[in-house]
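Morning!

This is the sequence you dropped in the shared folder:
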Amino acid sequence: MLQFKVLQDLCASCQAHGAVGGGAAGAAGLSSGRTPILPVHPSSQSGQAIATMGRPMQEALVVRRETHIAAPPAAVFALLTDPEKILRWMGTEAEIEPQPEGLYLVNVTGARFARGSFREVVPVHRLAYSFGWDGSEVVPPGSSLVEIDLIEQPDGTLLRLTHTGLPNAEQCAGHAEGWAHYLGRLAEVAAGRDPGPDPWHGRTGSD
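The structure's back. Tokens below.
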């Protein structure tokens, strides 16, 4: 699912505002004993992961990512909303109801569930859903917001992701790593390639 902006740039952005980065604790959050955060896949294509401080401070940090995918928007949308297709690039089980107030539930690593509900569904073009982790006090279920826009291009789709509502720089950095990893796997599947076993399968974490 590629070249990503080096996480050091992301953490430098966080530190410039007096925050502490958390790059080692990947978006499933798993080896550090904190909320799960998921890792960067080593073979990624072009994309960006940027953490920025909002104003006022209550707006906290934002993760933004853009990834080009060599498939039409309809194919990418299906990979984001069809439970069976989601499992080709992320997770071991999924329950997805792509309609307003519908459930978003994915066992991302086989040992950690991401949970939320859909806020907006525009078929083939846009998804927005709340997001958090079962059992987490730092990023509890539904406590943040993921927005995904699919923009048709001559050679495929530009996927533009924004993740807001994360509580601190460490979580922002870790979730940025996770999106890099899993969107990389998504792009591989969309292009007709096998991303291979997920190296973070089976990992767990706690706050």
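Headline: The longest strand covers residues 156-166.

More detail when I'm at my desk.
O.
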